[in-house]
Amino acid sequence: MEYRFKVSCSKNKLGEIREFLQQVLGENSIPEVTINTLVLAVDEVCANLIIHSHHCNPNEHIELKVSMNGNSEIIFDIIDNGVGFNICDYKEPSLSDIVRQKRKGGIGLMLVKRIMDEIELIKGEKKNVYRLHKKI
Predict the structure, then answer these.
(1) pLDDT tens-digit profile of 84-132?
(2) Hey, is 3 helix, strand or coil?
(3) Pairwise CA distance, residues 6 & 64, whole Å
(4) Measured at the alpha carbon of residue 60, what is the angle toward residues 11 and 51, in degrees to the nearest 5?
(5) 61 pLDDT more than 60
(6) pLDDT at 60
(7) Domain enclosing residue 94, as ranges
(8) pTM score, two decimals?
């Protein structure tokens, strides 16, 4: 099964993304704890794209595609045409550095990498696809 959802790049659309994900995953008998964890990870990637790649420009869009591969894997594709950031190359800061520097951010992508089983960036000429895999 495949589900699609397209939203403008406005931070207030993140709630709609979370609702879409909760509905789709809930319809597919995914346990609630797993749903919450997956929503957290996908929301983090979407928020980073909306804020950093699209500068919260509501005239630009991201698209989310959720594919269920039977009962064994879920694939989340987050599709945009912004400046591509290769999450696969992201180097995790140490938690002690984050605390010492009193940074307010810095752990979101760390969580994404720990929650998902595989992360890919597929760069195209006109769009980027951030593909997140989770075995269930």
Answers:
(1) 665 655 565 555 554 555 555 556 777 898 899 999 988 888 899 999 9
(2) strand
(3) 6
(4) 35
(5) yes
(6) 94
(7) 2-135
(8) 0.86
Q: CA–CA distance from 78 to each of 31, 48, 95, 101, 119 (Å)? A: 22, 11, 27, 31, 11
Pull the structure tokens for residue 65: 């595609």
Q: How many domains does the chain have?
A: 1
User: Taking the mean position of all CA atoms in its chain, how far away is CA 9?
Assistant: 14
Helix crossing, 32-48 with 14-27: angle to 10°? Answer: 150
DSSP characters over 52-84 = IISTT-TTSEEEEEEEEETTTEEEEEEEE-S--
CATH code of residue 131: 3.30.565.10
In the chain, the N- to C-terminal Cα span, in Å, equals 15
